[in-house]
């Protein structure tokens, strides 16, 4: 199988797996405790609650209307994100949103919580949902909702992460929760969102900037990094203190997600290259976030 095709298929599978983990966290762990997600999923939960309590609308038992509402909310967001990302991202996101809509509608909600303690449920659900959403983003897609808003904002505004969007939206969701339920529900829901945002930002490697210092005798390695990764680099000549051999030295800043590709590109051009990776660096100035 062609390497690029294999990478594409792996990306789609990973994206769907992450979306399914998110759905499991919401339907199986969070909803039975009547907790709310501080993301656009939470907004969809609020709309569903209003529709089912203030209108004569009824739904079959164990069927979640949240997924359908989330699909409708995602349509304008997908159009917005299409303007700032590569073409594969919206395609994967559309597939994920449809997949999540079907999964949320048909993955059964337990009659009784499978994790009895709401504190443990909030932590476990937040970790699983955050990992799922982050893994979807790492695979080049999105589960929609606040992920799309966060991706758009992170591309437009430096140092803005996808997880922060969940915290902002949560203010609206938890305001409703406090009015509709009680303070305990709000506290456990807020804890869920905090754990979710933390897990998402630490799984979504595009938020982590990495610097690389590369020593190579091949000038092609520098050019390939610029051409294939689309990153700038600063280059100078050096000399080995022991060998006395002249070498090219160049440094660049990439996202942690791009690190494996950088290693592969450099070692293919020069198998004897020496690479130093410095994780999680602060960058001031123009740095293009890629998805």
Report on this model:
The protein is of the alpha+beta class and 291 residues long. The chain has two domains: 3-205, no CATH class; 208-278, Alpha-Beta Plaits (2-Layer Sandwich). Helix content is 59%, strand content 10%. It is built from ten helices and four strands. Strands 2-3-1-4 form a four-stranded antiparallel sheet. Helix 2 crosses helix 3 and helix 2 (40-54) runs parallel beside helix 7. The longest helix is centred in the N-terminal third of the chain and has 28 residues, at 3-30. The model has no long low-confidence stretch (mean pLDDT 79).
Q: The biggest beta sheet, please?
A: 4 strands, antiparallel
Structural domain count: 2
Residue windows where pLDDT falls under 50 for at least 5 positions: none
Radius of gyration (CA) equals 22 Å
N-to-C SSE string, H for helix and E for strand: HHHHHHHHEHEEHE
Residues in β-strands, percent? 5-15%
List the total number of helices. Answer: 10
Which structural class do you get from the secondary structure elements? alpha+beta
- Which of globular, elongated, flat, extended, rod-shaped describes the shape? elongated
C-alpha termini separation: 25 Å
Secondary structure: elements and pairs:
Elements: H1 3-30, H2 40-54, H3 66-81, H4 88-106, H5 118-138, H6 146-156, H7 162-180, H8 183-203, E1 209-216, H9 219-229, E2 234-239, E3 246-255, H10 259-269, E4 274-278
Antiparallel strand pairs: 1-3, 1-4, 2-3
Helix pairs in contact: 1-4, 1-5, 2-3, 2-7, 3-4, 3-6, 5-8, 6-7, 7-8, 9-10
């Amino acid at each position: 199988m062609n390497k690029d095709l294999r990478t594409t298929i792996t990306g789609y599978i990973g994206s769907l797996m992450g979306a399914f983990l998110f759905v499991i966290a919401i339907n199986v762990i969070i909803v039975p405790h009547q907790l709310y997600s501080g993301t656009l999923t939470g907004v969809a939960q609020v709309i569903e609650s209003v529709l089912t309590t203030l209108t004569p609308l009824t739904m079959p038992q164990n069927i979640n209307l949240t997924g359908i509402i989330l699909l409708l909310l995602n349509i304008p967001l997908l159009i917005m994100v299409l303007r700032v990302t590569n073409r594969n991202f919206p395609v994967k996101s559309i597939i994920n949103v449809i997949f999540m809509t079907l999964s949320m509608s048909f993955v059964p909600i337990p009659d009784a919580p499978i994790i009895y303690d709401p504190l443990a449920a909030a932590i476990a659900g937040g970790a699983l949902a955050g990992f799922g959403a982050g893994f979807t983003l790492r695979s080049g897609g999105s589960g929609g909702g606040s992920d799309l808003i966060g991706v758009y904002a992170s591309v437009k505004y430096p140092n803005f992460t996808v997880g922060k969007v969940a915290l902002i939206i949560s203010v609206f969701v938890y305001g409703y929760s406090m009015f509709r339920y009680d303070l305990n529900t709000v506290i456990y829901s807020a804890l869920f969102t905090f754990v979710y945002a933390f897990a998402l930002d630490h799984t979504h490697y595009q938020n982590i900037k990495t610097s690389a210092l590369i020593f190579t005798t091949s000038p092609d390695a520098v050019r390939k990094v610029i051409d294939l990764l689309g990153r700038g680099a600063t280059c100078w000549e050096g000399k080995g203190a022991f060998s006395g051999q002249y070498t090219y030295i160049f440094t660049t800043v990439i996202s942690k997600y791009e690190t494996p590709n950088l290693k592969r590109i450099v070692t293919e051009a020069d198998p004897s290259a020496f690479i130093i990776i410095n994780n999680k660096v602060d960058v001031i100035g123009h740095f293009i976030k890629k998805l």
